[in-house]
Amino acid sequence: MMVPALVYFLINNYLPMLGIVIAFKDVNFAKGILNSDWAGFKNFEYLFKTRDAWIITRNTILYNGSFIFLNLFFALAAAILLNEVANRFFKRVYQSLLLLPHLISSVIIGYLVYAFLNMDTGFMNKTVLPLLGLDEISWYSEPQYWPFILPIVSIWKQAGYLCVVFLASIVGIDKEYYEASTIDGASKWQQIRGITIPLIMPVIMIMTLLQIGRIFYSDFGLFYQVPLNSGAILDTTNVIDTYVFRALINLGDIAMSSAAGVYQSLVGFVLVITANLVTRKINRDNALF
């Protein structure tokens, strides 16, 4: 029964790792990848010597760090609330509605956001802001608003998936714990704090550690499609993935793009190992390995 999964991981995850050699080559398609000249760490220098290196690194870490915290908080809150819904039909409906944005293409999400933020016909400018007595805003040329817009879109898109995972863990908790606490006079908040969260903490930690490992990887669709590649707000929306993509489109240098992928993978690996070691020190049962 393990063979299909092992074959999948071998083909999809491990064989492509041989392509790491591209990151250290001066790729010449006339010679072929293996026969191309070695470039050493020259391809990695591109990420660190440009004037935008600090900006894209800062944006990547701060955005993904906030996404980890906010998505975890809202997903956990939604899962706890869903668990209190007694009607099975409505529980499934709410669960499906929360999960649906996770399944929608980033291109579609980009245009849904555009329908809200469009300067001339957007819902915000034509309905919400006039009700509040505020002037219209040119959202796609005002960078100060995007550190708030992107996290909101991320929560709407990603929290539903985590919510389903947490809800499955909560449903598996023995009901006798809650019955005993009710007899002892515990409130709902006390049950959540003393029973629900401690018992699903291993799942919370696993999902958090997995996200920490990808803190240098950004949701490309979120940072490229949602801002509609607007140059006026690049300082607040540009991350490593979008920066490398734009450089690849302009320069056509796949070696530099591969070097960025290797850099992200190594940093992610170090972060996962470090976070896991810290978790093991605190509570061995909550660690990944």
TrEMBL record:
Keywords: Cell membrane, Membrane, Transmembrane, Transmembrane helix, Transport. Pfam families: BPD_transp_1. It is found in: Cell membrane. It is a multi-pass membrane protein. Its main location: membrane. Residues 57-275 form the ABC transmembrane type-1 domain. The chain crosses the membrane at residues 5-24, 61-82, 94-117, 148-173, 194-217, 254-278. Coiled coil: none annotated. Belongs to the binding-protein-dependent transport system permease family. This is ABC transporter permease. It comes from Cohnella hongkongensis. The lineage of its organism: Bacteria, Bacillati, Bacillota, Bacilli, Bacillales.
